[in-house]
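Shipment paperwork, digital attachment
Item: protein structure file
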Amino acid sequence: MDFLYTYETLKLEFPLVEPEEAAFTILGVPFDGTTSFKAGARFGPTLIRHATLNLESYILDYDIDIAKLPIADIGDVAVVAGDPKKTTDRVRETVEELKKANPKTSPILLGGEHSQTLGAVEALKPKSYVVFDAHLDLRDSYEDNPYNHACVARRISELGVKEAMFGIRSGTREEVEYAEREGIAWVHARDYDFDAFVELVKPLPEPVYLSVDIDVFDLSLVPSTGTPEAGGLSFWDVVEAIEWLVENKRIAGFDIMEVAGENLGDITALTAAKLLFYFIGAMGREL
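Attachment content:
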């Protein structure tokens, strides 16, 4: 199946299926047009895909081989350089096309700066948005741009989607006040534990869109990301949360964003690739 805005790119090495037959469909968004510190998120989708070559497709914890699951990879969105809104529109239209062709598939975005999560959320229309992130991303505008990567959670909130945020350790007073006014729950990285996670997400309405900004992790796991912050979560913190969500909530879509870098084999991409495999494996157990 051809999509209006996508092009072929490096793909996972194990057998893939057509999007119409897939339980999981991967879409890369190689955009970093509003990155405010370290550039390179445009290379994220390629770096993550390449990093999967280092991984066994068999997930020891789950006794499942994800290479045997119906996975499609429709390539990367042809981004509009420097224009997050037009690129977001392309992401939205691509995900809408995908869901029209296969309503049962779970879209998985690989990015790419976090601004582009908005397009997937607009297309999938989840009731809730659960995000792991170092930053609140609740600014109304940043650098005179309401579609900056620092504004993505604000734009999603304005859609009427319930939000819960975890691993937070950076934000402005205005963002905190906005979260209080709008009833947006968030947990500081210093206070994060599994019980705190479950307490906040258990009452959330379904379906849930799950987003992981790679900068949520400890810096030793993700040295190559656009706006790195010390004091992050462990890999297993996030995996445990994903497992609970998959077992207890209907998942509308998933993404791993803000992977940056210029070198193949980058540690950040390896972390993202492993997380991708765990998400697919956890979902695959429920098929």
